[in-house]
Structure to design on (112 residues):
């Protein structure tokens, strides 16, 4: 496949949306949880990534509402986004398996 590796934030956004649609703040909270607090996306970076993923057709806005005078968009994976996440997950799994093999960690339990 000729697609380049996905940036970490984009991968985490797709992962956060894999099981349910979410608004931006909820996506940020999911990312924080997924990474055990290692990644706390800044607002500008998160919304930049969300906008790029919408433009690329990997996510879509499924709801827009105004809450306390501010626009809130709810995002969901598109079928293309789900497929891209699956492809990227497999690519990473292969790389991790090879790194573990070369480090002699094949029999060791996987830890975070």
């Amino acid at each position: 496949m000729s697609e380049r590796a996905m940036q970490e934030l984009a991968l985490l956004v797709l992962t956060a949306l894999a099981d349910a649609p979410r608004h931006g703040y909820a996506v940020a909270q999911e990312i924080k949880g997924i990474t055990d607090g290692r990644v706390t996306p800044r607002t500008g970076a998160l919304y930049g990534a969300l906008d790029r993923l919408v433009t690329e057709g990997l996510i879509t806005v499924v709801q827009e509402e105004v809450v306390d005078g501010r626009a809130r968009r709810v995002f969901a994976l598109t079928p293309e986004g789900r497929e891209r996440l699956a492809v990227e997950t497999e690519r990473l799994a292969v790389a991790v398996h090879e790194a573990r093999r070369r480090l002699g960690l094949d029999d060791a339990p996987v830890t975070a």
Notes: The mean pLDDT is 92.
